[in-house]
Amino acid sequence: MITADIANYTTYACSAIAALLIIVRLVVSKFQPKLLDISFFIAIFGLAAIVARVIVTYYVLKLGTASDVLAKMKNTTTTDLDAEDLKNIKKGSILSLFARILTTCIIWSMNLLLLLLYRRLVAHLPWVKHAITGTFVFIALSYFAVIAATFLECRPFHLYWQISPAPGACVNAYSQTMVQCLANVITDLILMGISIPILFIQGSRATHRARIFGLIALSAFCIVVTCVRLTYVFEGGSFQETRVFWASISVAVAALVANAPVIYGSLKIMQRSKRTTYAYGDGYGMANPRAKGTADMMLEDVERMDGITKHTSIAVSHIKAGDDVPLLPMPLIE
Predict the structure, then answer these.
(1) Which residues lie closer than 8 Å to 259 by C-beta, 6 or more apart?
(2) How the protein sits in the membrane (predicted)?
């Protein structure tokens, strides 16, 4: 039996993990080719949603919801609910709707981050471009479908916090949970389908393929967690504690899948940049231009950034013996 304390502690732990992953991603993103791209702002949005969800969930579990009260009333003959209790139930029920919206915002923003990463990985495959565009459309449509299911499952709207007469099964939010979980699973399957061709790209390194395979495995794990969450919510009578517990785990897993590959790639770039110092006489197999009147050199450093091959060239043209100008990497514009 998942209690309110267990649900709260799980929310704190999973939210801390998810927030830490996003923060690390934002910090190390300075090593990426583009610092302030759209993924940067999506990550910030996801981080804000995680913080907001922790606060909202705390009050949902503290105040209670109509669905939990109705479930408990089935096992007791007393209904000691005064005006203050009914007021708290109304507040908790409304906040639970916003908690579901925030959970959707977090998971969908992580899906967008993952899709943007895949777009960078396979931008050179024509058919994949169309698949990615279609996935963007599906993510947008499924997001609005979940939002609609969240607010329209109970009609009229006051049924969400109504206790007597019984409002019906709509307060359990089974339809909303089903739409959210199925849409998330379909998105994960599409993302896995897009990433599989990367494993068969000619010339890919074994380490690169291993990272892609790990990414696919993480996506598969995310699907498993979503299915387990769906099962427990339906079998557990949609108690708020159960919903919060498994939604928190889904948030942490989604954040791991979306941010771990970028963090890994950024750290690899950082390590490579520390090992590579372009300066006169630094012993990296480069002739010291001080010994020559002029030098014409072009060095190509193949860098693996998030699995993408980027070419960084260093050009030095007509450097005089007395010039004291270090050699700095200059990215090619492709």
Answers:
(1) 21, 22, 24, 25, 43, 110, 113
(2) Multi-pass membrane protein
32 pLDDT higher than 90: no
Long-range contacts made by residues 75-82, C-beta under 8 angstroms, separation at least 24?
A: 79/163, 79/164, 81/163
**Residue 327 phi, psi (nearest 5):** -90, 120
Locate 139 and state its tokens: 């993510």
Contact 26, 43 (CB under 8 A): yes
Helix axes 66-73, 83-121, angle to 10 degrees: 120
DSSP for 275-304 reads H----TT-SSS---GGGSS--EEEEEEEEE
Q: What is the pTM of this model?
A: 0.79
Which residues 6+ apart lie within 8 Å of 2 measured at CB?
A: 236, 239, 241, 242, 245
Q: Which one is predicted more confidently, 315 or 89?
A: 89
The 10 Å Cβ neighbour count of residue 269 is: 20
In eight-state DSSP terms, residue 173 is -
Instruction: Convert the pLDDT of each residue in 121-151 to its tens digit.
Output: 766 677 778 888 899 999 999 999 999 999 9
**∠ Cα 217 110 215 (to 5°):** 20
Domains of the chain in start order, with CATH, are 4-274 (1.20.1070), 279-331 (no CATH)
DSSP 331: E
Asked if pLDDT for residue 107 goes beyond 70, the answer is yes
- pLDDT, mean of residues 272-299: 46
pLDDT tens sequence across 238-258: 789 999 999 999 999 999 999
Under the phi-then-psi rule, with left for phi > 0, alpha for psi from -120 to 50, and beta for the rest, what region is 279?
beta
> Can you read off the two tokens belonging to residue 124?
């050179």
**Edge-first strand listing for the sheet containing 308-317:** 296-305, 308-317, 330-331
User: Which DSSP string corresponds to 17-57?
Assistant: HHHHHHHHHHHHGGGSS-SSSHHHHHHHHHHHHHHHHHHHH
